[in-house]
Amino acid sequence: MISGNIQNLKTEAGLMPAAIVRGLAYLAANDIAGLPVGRIELEGDKLYVLVQDYATVAPSEKRPEAHDKYLDIQYIANGAEEIGWCVRHDGLENAEDLRRDKDVIFFKNIADETKLVLCSGMYAIFFPNDVHRPGCIHGKSQAVRKAVVKISIDLL
């Protein structure tokens, strides 16, 4: 997992793979708050953006998840949320495995979760080895505008 602020992209771009830089550059160059909710294809199924609006909820209402074929760049355009994170390991108990159809596996609650707070302008990159629980309350429930850039691991 890597976290950062989109304002630092110019100084940090040289440290990241080109596909991740392309995803972050799209976020930096566009007014995510003004885009319609839904999917925006940048490079077909290999690199695309999901624009989302939702209210944050208690962690007990969200399931930890991970992906095998894509990494996520989760970017907060407006609002703030807490994202639980841990390294994927053999001790995690599967709750629902949808990897074949949707590239997502959900886990039961995890004991070794670290809390990451993302505010407007911040992003977190979750690799296939990262379990994450997005959309959780930070302080109180609030509206969030988020863009999730999905990048196929084939591009890395």
Characteristics:
156 residues, Jelly Rolls, six-stranded antiparallel sheet, three-stranded antiparallel sheet, 3 helices
CATH superfamily grouping:
YhcH/YjgK/YiaL
Order of helices and strands: EHHEEEEEEHEEEEE
| Low confidence ranges | none
CATH architecture: Sandwich
Helical element count? 3
Report the portion of residues in β strands: over 45%
The first-to-last residue Cα distance is: 15 Å
Largest sheet: 6 strands, antiparallel
Number of strands: 12
Radius of gyration: 15 Å
Shape assignment: globular
Number of domains: 1
Characterise the protein shown here.
By secondary structure, the chain is mainly β. The chain has a single domain (2-155), classed as YhcH/YjgK/YiaL (Jelly Rolls), CATH 2.60.120. The protein is 13% helix and 46% strand. It has three helices and twelve strands; from the N terminus they run βααββββββαβββββ. The strands form three sheets. The protein has a six-stranded antiparallel beta sheet, with helices on one face. A three-stranded antiparallel beta sheet has the order 4-8-7, with no helix packed on it. The chain is globular, with a radius of gyration of 15 Å. The model has no long low-confidence stretch (mean pLDDT 96).
Concise overview:
The chain is mainly beta. Helix content is 13%, strand content 46%. The longest helix has 12 residues, at 18-29.
